[in-house]
Amino acid sequence: MDMKHIVNAYFSAFERKDGEAWVSLFASDGSLGGPAHTPPVMGHAALAELFAGIAMLFETIHFDILAVHVHGPFAVAEFDLHTRARNGRTPQAQGMVAFAADDAGKLTQVAGFWDPAPVFSQAMAA
Question: Which terminus has fewer CB within 10 Å in the chain: N or C?
Fold first, then answer.
């Protein structure tokens, strides 16, 4: 299992707004949580619904990956987020995402450590 590859695939799927590819990275009972998603979103159906809701708000999503730290089946990625919302606004954010994977290379836990509220409030503003 190559955690760097899994992390890159996670962010790449988001940038392409490819929900199917993104959800396929998770184990069937995988979760997305942390301060950015509290309570955690668990399971493929809920993750797909979350992804679709996010993707419909943005024309473009781009992550500048500043660093990826890997230790066995765990990784942490530091990022700068740049978006263009469908309303024309360009919200940005910075943060980290922590990843844990099982022996099959599927994500079991992902935790976002950043504040998504300003990004989504700008993206949903009239």
Answer: C
pLDDT digits (tens, 9 = 90+) for 4-21: 999 999 999 999 999 999
Distances (CA, A) of 82 to 11, 64, 93, 117: 12, 8, 7, 14
CB of 95 within 8 A of CB of 112? yes
Query: CB of 9 within 8 A of CB of 107?
Result: no
Tens digit of pLDDT for each residue in 25-70? 999 999 999 887 778 999 999 999 999 999 999 999 999 999 999 9
CATH number assigned to the domain covering 3-124: 3.10.450.50
Instruction: Tell me the CB-side half-sphere exposure of residue 120, using CA atoms within 13 A.
Output: 11
CA distances from 57 to 16, 48, 71 (A): 14, 15, 34
Residues near 100 by Cβ (< 8 Å), separated by ≥ 6? Answer: 73, 74, 107, 108, 109, 110
Give the CA radius of gyration of the chain: 14
